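We both want to read discrete structure tokens more fluently, so let's practise on a single case. Would you write everything just below, so we can both look at the same thing?
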Amino acid sequence: QVQLVESGGGLVQAGGSLRLSCAASGRVRSIYTMGWERQAPGKQRELVAHITDSGITTYADSVKGRFTISKDNAKATVYLQMNSLKPEDTAVYYCKTSLRFGPVERQYDEDYWGQGTQVTVSS
């Protein structure tokens, strides 16, 4: 298992910046991807960004050019730098990690989420 602890959420004005952090502990050697999802009130949870163990990144179209995901393997920590924030970025942000096990022909993944951190962007 893996435990995820998030930090860095808060209230910011539109156009401002925040940096989220998520530190993993436990079976960190099996981590395949780390990333962030978010859920706004009344909306479905959506992918924000994730990064693989080899450093390949994926972003939602809505955040491309504004958010940057990065990781520190030594600390088993993933970061989300959020710039040019908009009111529509307001949501609870959840750190997510996928652990991968088994040989290539029989691989399987386990997903874990953090408790979530609130990001509120005022207009």
In short: The two ends are 40 Å apart (CA to CA).
